[in-house]
């Protein structure tokens, strides 16, 4: 028969709690003993009941095993603490290096601007002069390029405006020509209508109608 899955939660009933504690405690200590025998392992288990009663199992001397555990814990936490201290020191060193780099860059920028030059040697002043001249060359080249682009854009705008004016002039001339042609056509049509009118004059009595 398959046993149903038991939900792991606090047992409120006191009797059921005591029975479950007794069974599980015995099972735990039995498993600890089996593990020590099967795998030749050093196993120790300590259980305190709700009332504070001690139950324990040790595959060898409990006191020696506790001392061994304490030594291991001390060494483990000591190594962990040393690693944390090393990590903190590494971070401090990185921060110091970055601060020094920032200070050197700030000093270099001030020297390029003509400040704090009192401690500069002739060689360093020559290097600063060369850097400034290179920077000026790049700035002038960029400035010339910007001016050239602005002139080209202005020429393009002027050319576009000129074409627009020409197009408007052409359209105006075409519209005036069409108006003139329409006016000429209207005058010709009126003259043709007047010349085509015929007048019949009949003298005598009117014809009788049958």
Structure description:
It is a single chain. With 210 residues, the protein is mainly alpha-helical. Helix content is 72%, strand content 5%. It contains three helices and two strands, in the order αββαα. It has helices at 14-39, 62-112, 122-195; strands at residues 44-48, 54-58. The chain has a two-stranded antiparallel ribbon. The longest helix has 74 residues, at 122-195. The chain is elongated and about 130 Å long. The N and C termini lie far apart (134 Å). The relative contact order is 0.03. The mean pLDDT is 83.
Report the helical percentage. Answer: over 70%
Biggest sheet, open or closed, and with what strands and sense? 2 strands, antiparallel
Structural class, please?
Answer: mainly alpha
How much strand? Answer: under 5%
* Strand ordering within the main sheet: 1-2
Q: What Rg is obtained from the alpha carbons, in whole angstroms?
A: 55 Å
* Total number of helices: 3
What value does the average pLDDT take? 83
Low-confidence stretches: none
Q: What spatial form do the alpha-carbon principal axes imply?
A: elongated
- Please report the total strand number as a whole number: 2
Secondary-structure element order, N to C: HEEHH
Distance between the termini: 134 Å
